[in-house]
Amino acid sequence: MPVLDAEPSPLPIDLATTALVIIDMQRDFLEPGGFGESLGNNVSLLAAAVPPTRALLDAARAAGLLVVHTREGHKPDLSDAPPAKRERGEPTVRIGEPGPMGRILIRGEPGHDIIPELAPRDGEPVIDKPGKGAFYATGLAGVLEARSVATLLVCGVTTEVCVHTTVREANDRGYRCVVVADACGSYIPAFHEAGLAMIKAQGGIFGWVSDSTSVIAALG
Ligand code: TIU
Questions:
Q1: Which residues contact 94 (CB under 8 A, 6 or more apart)?
Q2: For ligand 1, mutation pick of 21, 22, 24 (most atoms within 8 Å of CB)
Q3: Centroid of ligand 1 to alpha carbon of 46 (angstroms)
Q4: What residues are in contact with ligand 1 under a 6 Å CB criterion?
Q5: Which of 58, 98, 136, 202 is the most exposed place for a label (fewest CB within 10 A)?
Q6: How far apart are CA 87 and CA 95, in angstroms?
Q7: Residues in domain Isochorismatase-like (predicted)?
Q8: How many Cβ atoms from other residues are within 10 Å of residue 192's Cβ?
């Protein structure tokens, strides 16, 4: 069994029960004119996570891992978007309002798509989620249970929001979570660093932190 170089400790990885989970690498977060920018963020800060994520995706596919993609977004009628979420922000650029990539954070709109570099392949589950965590109100638990998955390699955006929420949910569900640091990104670099530090503190209170080079070596 390969042993992954990770903090706070090396982690043996059983590839047969390991999945790669790529969180919300959508145009709405990574490109101008989407939800991320509507919140006042500089979306170019997420670009650095794309090449490591692409390398990780290629390695996971080559190793035959289950690859799961997630997308944050809401139904066109907004019935799954709580008012407390919708009411935040400048009214003209709120969730559901029109923007250059279609209605902001709405399923089926161009902005909701995963960026072309990381497009899902046929057969790879795509989990549409209304919240920050990938387990809340989704079928992710069933997808993982059907494949007897025990370890999650988690990457995507943003580190302290949807990656963190998903890892916290997964940790409570009993999954070993490895956050792949350079394949994550945040609009707030200090929060990226703090988010990673929180995962691995206290003996790995939420899981492990590694990097794409180490994970790819373990997958090879
Ligand atoms: N995917 C995800 O992290 N959703 C967010 O809203 N992130 C922010 O950092 N805003």
A1: 38, 86, 87, 88, 104
A2: 24
A3: 11
A4: 24, 29, 39, 72, 132, 157-158, 161-162, 187
A5: 202
A6: 8
A7: 18-205
A8: 22
Contact indicator for 215, 52 with CB cutoff of 8 Å: no
Location of structure tokens 């907004």: 78
Out of 28, 69, 132, give the residue to mutate to test ligand 1, the one with the largest number of ligand atoms within 8 Å of its CB. Answer: 132
3-class secondary-structure state, position 64: coil
Q: What pTM was estimated for this model as a whole?
A: 0.98
Give the separation between CA 21 and CA 179, rounded to whole angstroms.
10
pLDDT tens sequence across 14-67 = 999 999 999 999 999 999 999 999 999 999 999 999 999 999 999 999 999 999
Q: Residue 98, SS3? A: strand
